[in-house]
Amino acid sequence: GRGLLLPCSTMFTLFPGKASTKSLRGSELELSTDRLNFVLWNDAMTQDLHGNADQVAELVHRSGEVLARCNREGFPHIAHKTTPSQTGSDQDFIHGGPDGTQLHTMINNVTTLATASVVANRPDLGAVAQEHLLVFFLDPQTGMNPRLTFPDGKPTDLVEFYDLPRLLDSIALIQDELSGDFRSALKGWFSAFLDRVDDIKSHYHPSATGLAGGAYDVLRMGLATWLGRSEIVKDQAAEVQGRLEQAIKADGRTLLPVGLQMDALAVSAELASRAGVDLWGHKTRTGGGSLINAVQALVTDANNKGQAPQLYDRTIKLAQRHAARN
Known about the structure:
mainly alpha
């Protein structure tokens, strides 16, 4: 499953009087053009895992399960199509089919293996994560093409790629275990993929409704952050400002499902802050609401009703991270 996208199930205060725990500190604000940047992960999160023996043991155990499954079934990859691809290439990702399952299995496997490699000092697990990346992205027989397809001439469903920041963070975690050539090849693949994402920007104008717009923001800003392309992060942040005007009310209500839309806005706001743009505190023209106040309103309302907020854990943690910085 997608481990980050879970509803919050505990009662809490969003903005404690003294918010300063290590796990809530923000990532480095300056983006590197030489090294792969963390998207949502940070060094403090690695340190916290290092200090939790139970979680490290669980990661190593899950890595063993991944290895056993790969020995039985092989590595996740883009399968040859049973019917001819509309683009003429078997290696184009097809949404909503077996390729989607393969994508999410690969992301989960690489995340588990890479994290365990770092916190348990198991470079052998990092090597298996690297094999996953080779098979899924770089091997000409099994790798996905770095482009987006448009079945029947319509924009593709970008929600499939909503979990990509987790993969990018995992690669950044083990980048020092990768050879220079391998790292360069991955950067080349994702740079080409970002170019294709840029090509379809007009399809996801802030005036358009639907969750795909938020997924597009996360995808474009996440790729650009990882690659150190601050100018693209700032460009998309301006689009997210427009989406905030369309989506958010002062009480935190949204036109679309609250959990996913608020999470997309929270991720976009966190990435914008890395480029020096404040989307958390941006006041909308109608009603003067802001994203951070909307999250607070949703949490307060849920607490008053004795319920869990209709928000993902990640959304709340990112809001707390912002509060700890300010």
